[in-house]
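Dear support,

We are seeing what looks like truncated structure output for some complexes. This example has two components. We would appreciate it if you could run it in full and send us the complete token output so we can diff it against ours.
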Amino acid sequence: MIRSMLVVAVCMFVLVAASPVRVGYEVGDTVADFKLKNTNGKMVALSDYKDAKGVLVIFDCNTCPYSKAYNDRIIALSKKYGAKFPLVLVQSNDPSISPGDSYEEMVDHAASHGYDFPYLFDETQNVAKAFGATNTPHAFVLKKEGTAFKVIYIGAIDDNARDASAVTKRYVEDAVDAALNNKAATTTKTKAIGCTIKWKNA
Amino acid sequence: MSRFLILLLIICAFVAKAQERAKIVKLPELQEMIAAKSDQIKVINFWATWCAPCVKEMPLFEKIGMERQDVKITFVSMDLDLDPDPTKVYKFVTRKKIQSQVVILDEKNPNLYIDLIDKSWSGALPATIVVNTKTGQRKFVEKELHEGELEKLIAEVQ
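Here is the complete output from our reference environment:
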């Protein structure tokens, strides 16, 4: 009896140890609340958005050429959806590796680009890790269901980083529009070339 | 006048040499380069001229490429995804005197081709594949490699 229990215990251990570590949210997951410092010095939490239909979270930064290529498109997204589906930018790069992404540089960047939406500093990188964000810009469309925020889309903003006028698929807009119309997003996950998030040295 | 012509010729020769070193390829050709059976361990590194951690790790790859006959390094530039003009890549290859093979991927729709290169790749740069085509052993990493890490990956597929 003890022996068979031991065998079961060993088997369970092996199963647990062998199962791949799941990193970050998948489509359908409920997002844990987070609270980060905005460039205006105030704290912003996901749970602050009580009246929104959802929140568009984009991991972004000052320095990445892809972030620069998408900057106008990101600002346009905020203008388009406003308070109905607010945009929240999160900057997770470690400034000791990417000095252009320090909090002070973020404050300058937000001012010079006229950001009227939160640009949050994820100093511990815990939010990027929780989301499983890998690169910039990396978008997560969260739909509000009751008080929970559920992931309905993860990936690129659209299908052409190089040329905004040549875009054929607007993934993020399609997902937000679907959420606003209480429909499921047609595309739920995409990949794009981008800058890796600059993680702190372990 | 003749001096000017000679200078022009030298410049052209440089550009031609860099172009010869950095061939523009489509996805099927790249896939064949990764999959084709070889006695050497293949190291395929995805990079771009704008990517600071990529540029930082390159000398480690170059060193191994020059020191080891059993390893073949290929740098795959992803620059065209953002900028259609490959001149920046040619200039970089010439300026840094890159000795390893360099190719430039020319493909649209990263959402499709990233998975076809490696399913575990998010698309972030740098990324590296280390493959032993004889045994099929393959490693994929999506981060900047530091001193000693590439050697370890190579040893793991040998």
